[in-house]
Amino acid sequence: MKTRLLLCLPLALTGCSLYGQFVERLHTDALEYRCDEKPLTVTLNNTRQEVSFVYDNTLLNLKQGMSASGVRYTDGVYVFWSKGDKATVYKYDRVVLNNCQLQSP
């Protein structure tokens, strides 16, 4: 009996891990923006309170920070700030993607 339990334990833990990944994917959205400079695809992970996107051939993962208005994500260098269906991306307080408009699905 103990042997069966020990054999089933890794399977049960794997199931828990897969369930956690499934739930996280349910709370993740891909957002398409059309900016002045170029299109931008942002992955919003509500569970982790972070966004990720590719800029200058680099994958950026930004954590949610404080914002007086809208929602702000940052890694200390880049900032993704959105309010409603508009967004802006900054690098060291300089705008690098401006007038980003969320596209309808």
Overview of this protein structure:
With 105 residues, this protein is of the alpha+beta class. It has one domain: Lipocalin. Helix content is 24%, strand content 50%. The protein contains 1 helix and 8 strands; from the N terminus they run H-E-E-E-E-E-E-E-E. An 8-stranded antiparallel beta barrel has the order 1-2-3-4-5-6-7-8. The longest helix has 25 residues. The protein is globular and about 60 Å long. The chain starts with a helix and ends with a strand. The relative contact order is 0.15.
Write the layout of secondary structure elements.
Elements lengths: L1 H25 L1 E7 L4 E7 L4 E6 L2 E8 L5 E4 L3 E6 L2 E6 L2 E9 L3
Antiparallel strand pairs: 1-2, 1-8, 2-3, 3-4, 4-5, 5-6, 6-7, 7-8
Overall strand count: 8
The largest β sheet comes out as: 8 strands, antiparallel, barrel
The strand order across the widest sheet is 1-2-3-4-5-6-7-8
Q: Beta-sheet strand percentage?
A: over 45%
Average pLDDT rating: 84
Straight-line distance between termini: 53 Å
* Overall number of domains: 1
Overall helicity: 10-25%
How does CATH name the architecture? Answer: Beta Barrel
Q: Helical stretch count?
A: 1
What is the succession of H and E elements?
HEEEEEEEE
The CATH topology name reads: Lipocalin
List keywords for this structure.
50% strand, single chain, Lipocalin, 105 residues, alpha+beta, 8-stranded antiparallel barrel
In short:
24% of the residues lie in helices and 50% in strands.
